[in-house]
């Protein structure tokens, strides 16, 4: 999904604004990428309609490419679609009871162990309960995991009544001061009445503080249908989306929230029980987009970049009229955006390059001092310092005023001249390439 979305957004790169025409193509491609990733048709359509509306209504930030802008819009919408903010598990009650539901092979037993381990690390006393009574191997599987993690597993191998086992386990937990009871249940290969009856009886009897529906992300559209079938019967509180480490196309994460009004709370990204992944809609959105930190870069630029000022400078650049005042004002803008190195490293592909570079905000100090010592006329008319007959004495005066050497003043002037030449060249270049360079 990320590759396709990237491709879709790339088509916008290089164009200077988002228009009805170029956005329509991109939107079409985004919709196709979503459908290919098994996102439900209605969800994909609503999603792209909303992105389109936002994109067209958006004032383009001069500091930011339209393609990047669209990434930001898509990112915001994806985050919203997946529930907006992270949702915590409810562990109220003494003991708190967490009930697992889901088809066979979805990852209930594995996730039960992961969750137990996660809570144990938070210093909670956790009891795992084996309620899959149909396969003897199921009890063994949970016991083995429990041993690995040093977590007690409650089971009654002879008892075939899961509701009874669970009730006994809760009694046992109360007596032994366990704080959380995690009830692992049996699943079937497909949704069937017996399984649904059993899980709803368990839910009614235990009154868990949290019922989690566990589903295999690799099953695509089926994951959404199963989620709905379970939800109609047992109104669970949250979803666990497992096997996102495989070649899962991510569509399930996007559709489920829209189809059942319940948040994804955890994801599974491996068979190992060591780590539990709490689901963060925003992080999942970046993962789907796979666009480095473009999003945070755009956010920062949006917050800080003064659009009018950027427009003014851009205009002067185009007319080859860039002067010291503009130079100074750009330095101020860059400084407002924070550490220059940080900022550069957020650009995809640039990150590694700047790591070893020696750039910091102090680099601007001498430049600022020198420009500040220029008269307004000198700032607006650099020729006074470059070619005018009074240039030499002016430079001396500036050096004195700024506490810098004439050599340093000369260096800055030389750099400025080179910059002017570059700007001229850029302006001679045709089309959007020049525009892009200018913005940089
Ligand atoms: P249950 O039948 O619902 O209890 O499912 P299990 O917990 O026994 O898991 C079924 C299979 O999926 C096992 O082989 C697990 O190791 C595997 N599994 C579970 N969660 C994940 C996951 O997040 N990623 C991967 N790759 N495999 C998983
Ligand atoms: Mg199991």
Main sheet characteristics: 8 strands, mixed
Number of helical elements: 22
Beta-strand proportion: 5-15%
State the CATH architecture of the largest domain: 3-Layer(aba) Sandwich
Write down how many β-strands occur, each being a DSSP E stretch of 2 or more residues.
8
* Helical fraction: 55-70%
Main sheet strand line-up: 3-2-4-1-5-6-7-8
Identify every distinct bound molecule in the structure, by name, code or SMILES.
guanosine-5'-diphosphate, magnesium ion
Name the overall outline: elongated
What is the CATH superfamily label of the largest domain? P-loop containing nucleotide triphosphate hydrolases
Specify the structural class: alpha/beta
Task: Give the radius of gyration.
Answer: 30 Å
Order of helices and strands: HHHHEHEHEHEHEHEHEEHHHHHHHHHHHH
Low-confidence stretches: none
Tell me the distance between the termini.
29 Å
Oligomerization: single chain
Structurally, how many domains make up the residues? 3
Main location: cytoplasm
GO molecular function: 7S RNA binding; GTP binding; GTPase activity
GO biological process, one term: SRP-dependent cotranslational protein targeting to membrane
GO cellular component, one term: signal recognition particle
